[in-house]
Structure of S-methylmethionine:homocysteine methyltransferase:
Amino acid sequence: MPDDAILIGDGGLATELEARGNDLCDPLWSARLLVDAPDEIAAVHMAFFRAGALIATTASYQASFEGFAARGIGRDDAVRLLRRSVELAAAARDEVGATGRWVAASVGPYGAARADGSEYRGRYGLSVAELTNWHQPRAEVLAEAGADVLALETVPDVDEAEALVNVVRSLGMPAWLSYTIDGTRTRAGQPLVEAFAVAAGVPEIVAVGVNCCAPDDVLPAIEVARATTGKPVVAYPNSGERWDERRHAWVGRPRFSAQLAPQWVTSGARIVGGCCRVRPDDIAELAALVR
């Protein structure tokens, strides 16, 4: 992407699916609707595009061969569903006009497929080689499905980032690498300088940054990412609420504000949007302010 371009990302796909009355209480989370209600996914992509988003992030974050197999879905059908995630986003883009709009295929972390919250902890006990082998087949399918870029998102630690960098190098596919963080460290506790250094000098990684974090953590992370890699930065935090695993509910006060986005852009962010609990109205306000 051009270094001076500003792209507006979408918001919380699962949040909007739930707001439309869909039950996502399932290990596949939003990927369940690839099987049961693909039109709902397409409708949410359309809602974010109409709000001003220029990027649709696919419903493949929690999709995996193992997760589909647990539902009795074989490998060939799992490939078809992964491809469908890209096709739905692309169809929504074409419906509103493809010019200047992108499809980002979500490659969620290994912990997301476990559906136990471990993507917010990392340190799975797997080697970089094991994580590379796990991510490779899914990323290959998503890349071949016609996505414009791979979104390596909500990455909790450096080992998984190294694995994902290995994958995109082998594919020759452009990707952004986005960590979920707590303060100035990854969720696994590594300094962000160390985390972003994994992507420095890797041409396939076209942007680095943070997502699925508190809005307050974004600005310092942008500065570290830019200084460490010199690459464009991606920033799409949560609303500021926190997911309580025991209660299975969001708690705390929303702190996401579109008013923060111009400052992110000034500091070096070139893709800005939202993650969990960020709605189309939030993206519409953000888009208006940034533009």
